[in-house]
Design a protein that fits this description.
Elements lengths: L2 H11 L4 H8 L3 H8 L7 H11 L3 H13 L8 H9 L12
Helix pairs in contact: 2-3
């Protein structure tokens, strides 16, 4: 689950609008909307205020951010790009290949 989706679910669970949540943490409604749509993550100070407003720990939010950063991203590259990388000494590990 992304941080944005988590913020959205917690906000809804608490019965808050984006505007109400924004008011609690002293940011604009558009900042909350941006976070909920994964357009960015709150800075350190906002993360602390957000955790308090959502009644969760900062540690919980950090875990979601870390997990989100570790999730695999599907990348589709062409055979030419692979050949170029290998010609420069890189080893390309294909999805069907054991490490």
């Amino acid at each position: 689950m992304s941080l944005g989706h988590y913020i959205y679910l917690r906000r809804k669970h608490l019965g808050l609008t984006q505007e109400q949540l924004a008011g609690k943490i002293f940011v604009s409604k558009s900042a909350v909307a941006k976070w909920e749509t994964n357009g960015g993550i709150p800075d350190r100070d906002n993360l602390f205020r957000l955790a308090e407003a959502l009644m969760v720990s900062v540690s919980d939010l950090h875990k979601i951010i870390e997990k989100q950063n570790l999730e695999a991203i599907d990348i589709n590259i062409t055979a030419e790009v692979i050949a170029t990388l290998e010609s420069h000494g890189y080893r390309v590990i294909r999805p069907d290949e054991d490490i």
